[in-house]
Amino acid sequence: MGWFYGFKLHIIINDQGELVNLTFTAGNVDDRKPVKQLCDMTVFGKLFGDKGYIDKSLTAWLDEHLDVELITNVKKNMKAKDIAWLDKRLLKRRFLIETVFDELKHICHIEHSRHRSPAGFMTNLLAGLIAYCHQAKKPTLKNVLIGHSLPQVA
């Protein structure tokens, strides 16, 4: 019998594909729980996330305490909300974060099941994140008119 470590990696990247902040949680933890910890004073402007981050109280807290606007798509059973034209365009380019996760998994090999100890798991995860940070070409957000503050992607 071997070891298995179920985890979720939560990252915030900028428009240049660079890691701004990250944390990881156990696989059974709600996606919204680590957002306040991730969004410290280094995050500003707009934060784009998937439907797992929808929460009125979280959106209000980010806006009130950090002046960060959380923008997500709506779920199928929700009413459509008004989103600015530029925010809609940027939300459609949320695939950038999925591209970063794909590179972390397949190029930097952070997702495999050969860990024989918790130390081996952490070593592999940190080595993969360091390898990603040192890549010369990262996925970037291009060809979009960007206003006064660059968006963040979650």
UniProtKB/TrEMBL annotation:
Every Transposase DDE domain range: 1-117
Pfam families named in the record: DDE_Tnp_1_3 (PF13612)
NCBIfam families: transpos_IS982
Protein name per Swiss-Prot or TrEMBL: Transposase DDE domain-containing protein
InterPro entries: RNaseH-like_sf, Tnp_DDE_dom
Family annotation (SUPFAM superfamilies): Ribonuclease H-like
Species name: Faucicola atlantae
